[in-house]
Design brief:
CATH architecture: Up-down Bundle
Radius of gyration: 15 Å
Number of domains: 1
Largest sheet: none
Strand content: under 5%
Length: 141
């Protein structure tokens, strides 16, 4: 069971890294709302990988503040998470804000959302270090 749990954690972690990379690319091409959404998704998937790594059931919710609190890491990442928590809904649904999502974001806002997601990864590195080592042990391909 522990092996399966770590395998699941690695999958969530790999997708988190991918989402973060694609978020950066969306800033570069003007997909600012998508960048903000993917910054949120990267953090959500990182946090869910930590649940799996701990052998805990992965919660089926999208509130990264709640996930961080349940993991006991909220205080470490509170400033970053508070700013990107709403982007799960706000960046996707036209009836949540005053304007449609793509009109609400610009390059500066999107870049800051991505930077905050990157800081979450940096601040939580000690919690997922073994997943990085797992990545290094496996050849690509």
């Amino acid at each position: 069971m522990a092996r399966l749990t770590k395998e699941v954690a690695v999958k969530w972690f790999k997708q988190a890294l991918h989402d973060l990379e694609i978020a950066k690319k969306n800033v570069a091409i003007g997909g600012y709302d998508t960048a903000a959404f993917l910054a949120h998704q990267a953090v959500e998937k990182l946090l869910k990988s930590l649940f799996a790594l701990r052998g805990q059931k992965i919660p089926r919710l999208h509130y990264i503040d709640v996930l961080a609190r349940r993991l006991g890491v909220f205080q470490l990442v509170a400033d970053e998470i508070i700013d990107i928590n709403a982007d799960y809904m706000f960046a996707r649904y036209p009836d949540v804000g005053e304007n449609v999502p793509y009109e609400e974001y610009d390059e500066e806002i999107a870049a800051e959302k991505v930077a905050k997601a990157e800081r979450v990864f940096t601040l939580l590195k000690e919690y997922y270090q073994e997943l990085l080592e797992e990545q290094e042990d496996k050849p690509d391909g």
